[in-house]
Design a protein that fits this description.
Largest sheet: none
Number of domains: 2
Distance between the termini: 71 Å
Domain RNA polymerase sigma factor 70 region 4 type: 109-161
Low-confidence stretches: none
Number of helices: 7
Structural class: mainly alpha
Strand content: under 5%
GO molecular function, one term: DNA binding
Family: Belongs to the sigma-70 factor family. ECF subfamily.
Radius of gyration: 36 Å
Number of strands: 0
Order of helices and strands: HHHHHHH
GO biological process, one term: DNA-templated transcription initiation
Organism: Sphingopyxis witflariensis
């Protein structure tokens, strides 16, 4: 191919104008569609066979690009489709917060039932440890029981809570 305007070859023309065309199409149709339309625009210019005779290849390429956008819009309008480019910041999937709240309520209800089904002494020791934050030693002193007794009741309560959670799943 001979020189067209300021470009010695089509390859030089492509390299010089590729970035500009990409930005043009990105503004018009979005980042995802832009690369394909850039290729299509350059292909149209090359297939026209007029590149080596053009005095202003930039203008020809720009007109070709605008025509591609117009044709694309007509096609979408004819099909009745609307294309919205994905915006990762705006269209990100939402966490299933409502589902988590429901699961949390169900879990709390299961724990409550499990604790209420415990013998009174076991429940008292478990709640003293978990809710009041008392150590085993402090519970021993307050209730006048041994270390093994506190461990037994805590283990029994934890086992009942684990079974309640396993039934939910």
């Amino acid at each position: 191919m001979t020189a067209a305007g300021p470009y010695p070859t089509f390859e030089a023309f492509y390299r010089a104008e590729h970035g500009r065309m990409f930005h043009f199409f990105r503004r018009k149709v979005g980042r995802d569609e832009a690369p394909d339309l850039v290729q299509e625009a350059f292909t149209c210019v090359l297939r026209s066979g007029a590149f080596d005779r053009l005095e202003n290849p930039n203008g020809y390429l720009t007109r070709t690009a605008r025509n591609l956008v117009i044709n694309r819009a007509r096609t979408w309008h004819r099909k009745g489709c609307v294309l919205y480019p994905l915006d990762e910041a705006r269209d990100a999937p939402l966490a299933p917060e409502q589902e988590w709240k429901i699961e949390g309520r169900e879990l709390r209800a299961a724990y409550r039932r499990a604790l209420l089904s415990l013998p009174r002494r076991t429940r008292r020791i478990f709640l003293m440890h978990r809710l009041k934050g008392l150590s085993y030693r402090q519970i021993e002193v307050e209730l006048g029981v041994g270390d093994k007794c506190v461990q037994y009741h805590i283990m029994r309560a934890l086992s009942r809570c684990r079974r309640a959670v396993a039934r939910l799943q």
